Amino acid sequence: MTSLSRAQQKYLPYVLAVALFMQILDATILNTALPKMAEALGESPLKMQWAVISYALTLAILLIDSRSYYSSRGRRDDDARCSADFG
């Protein structure tokens, strides 16, 4: 296991907080736009919840895949990059 440098220990919580904020912001935007999307597709907004679920699942799967990609290349300290790529 790789130990984090002092700078990484200092800034990692901030990077993760920003990534989490971006995820929550994206989900909020999607939930806000959902009624208009449902209207344009001629569906009930309650039946369109699959859009939010599929968005969150896709993001989670891509984040896990990107972490395994970077780990297989020997870059174990790229959690911030993975979060930035798909966050």
Task: Sum up the structure in keywords.
87 residues, single chain, 3 helices, elongated, 0% strand
Shape: elongated
Largest sheet: none
**What is the number of beta strands?**
0
The unreliable regions are none
Strand content: under 5%
Order of helices and strands: HHH
Radius of gyration: 17 Å
Domain count: the total is 1
Q: In percent, how helical is the residue content?
A: over 70%
Helices, by number, come to 3
Summing up helix and strand content along with how strands pair, one would put the structural category as mainly alpha
Average pLDDT, rounded to a whole number, is: 78
**N-to-C terminal Cα separation, in Å?**
25 Å
Care to describe what's here?
The protein is mainly α. The protein has one domain. It has helices spanning 6-41, 49-72, 79-86. The longest helix has 36 residues, at 6-41. The model has no long low-confidence stretch (mean pLDDT 78).
Helix and strand layout, with pairings?
Blueprint: H1 6-41, H2 49-72, H3 79-86
